[in-house]
Design a protein that fits this description.
By secondary structure, this protein is α+β, with helices and mostly antiparallel strands. The chain has a 4-stranded antiparallel sheet with strand order 1-2-3-4, covered by helices on one side.
Length: 64
């Protein structure tokens, strides 16, 4: 998974038992999103796996 946030590209690899980001394994995408942003984020939303804040579908919905 790839996510650009505040000028930095973050790559996460899905592995058995969790997610690897910066050579460390985490139990959830939410844990990684919280570290990256410094706030509580739904990890799947942050990485674009669900519609919501920060996704193209959400932005298109605002324009309607």
């Amino acid at each position: 998974l790839i996510r650009d946030f505040e000028g930095t590209r973050h790559a996460v690899t899905i592995v058995p038992g969790g997610f690897v980001w910066q050579e460390r394994t985490y139990p959830s995408l939410t844990a990684i999103a919280k570290i990256i942003t410094g706030t509580n984020w739904n990890g799947p939303k942050f990485f674009g796996l669900r519609e919501g804040v920060g996704t193209k579908a959400a932005e298109q919905g605002k324009a309607a």
